[in-house]
């Protein structure tokens, strides 16, 4: 016991000694320092996937028909001028765009506004593209794994049925995040954050535009060209979500085959 503690006990009154209390020692007890834990290094951030070498407009939010056509030709590796300017603008115009509905935004228009309001929105093309994507995706999976046992034995479903898994792959939010971001759609598509635009969110708007791109190819160039665009520019971006090595290898095969076709398939 320290000297300060002995002195404190000697000076304490008897009443205090009859209790269980002990005078406080002036020396504070030392506390053990916490054992340092080994520093865990944070995993390195996952590198961002490279963007498509797209031809972007000179000014964001003011897309001309020629710029829309050049953009679509660049991301789909098609000859310049493949898409008429009016069709290209329609493909990239969401129904939330303020000039897509004349009744909601009646005249008078400025000259610049008139140039931006000459085409309709892409809902119809998105409808066509959605059905085409569903068909192409199902055809790819079933042709790569021709038996039911092969499908269910693959590391693809992860507890889901095949219809649910395919629906998740081609969901508009998934297409918008995985495909739309790589295509830099946010730099070119025409939409507004009004009630219609906020209904599904930014990712859904991009996903619907991805569908409209395939729908536009289907409408203008035919199903073989749309399927080639899917094999070249959508399926490879979804490879990581296929998970199963056999499906990933099959996706590489169909991509190489589609590249061998070259040009515009009509």
TrEMBL record:
<dbReference type="GO" id="GO:0005762">
    <property type="term" value="C:mitochondrial large ribosomal subunit"/>
</dbReference>
<dbReference type="InterPro" id="IPR036389">
    <property type="entry name" value="RNase_III_sf"/>
</dbReference>
<dbReference type="GO" id="GO:0032543">
    <property type="term" value="P:mitochondrial translation"/>
</dbReference>
<feature type="domain" description="RNase III">
    <location>
        <begin position="86"/>
        <end position="243"/>
    </location>
</feature>
<feature type="compositionally biased region" description="Low complexity">
    <location>
        <begin position="28"/>
        <end position="41"/>
    </location>
</feature>
<dbReference type="Pfam" id="PF14622">
    <property type="entry name" value="Ribonucleas_3_3"/>
</dbReference>
<protein>
    <recommendedName>
        <fullName>RNase III domain-containing protein</fullName>
    </recommendedName>
</protein>
<dbReference type="InterPro" id="IPR040030">
    <property type="entry name" value="Ribosomal_mL57"/>
</dbReference>
<feature type="region of interest" description="Disordered">
    <location>
        <begin position="17"/>
        <end position="52"/>
    </location>
</feature>
<dbReference type="InterPro" id="IPR000999">
    <property type="entry name" value="RNase_III_dom"/>
</dbReference>
<dbReference type="GO" id="GO:0004525">
    <property type="term" value="F:ribonuclease III activity"/>
</dbReference>
<dbReference type="GO" id="GO:0006396">
    <property type="term" value="P:RNA processing"/>
</dbReference>
<dbReference type="GO" id="GO:0003735">
    <property type="term" value="F:structural constituent of ribosome"/>
</dbReference>
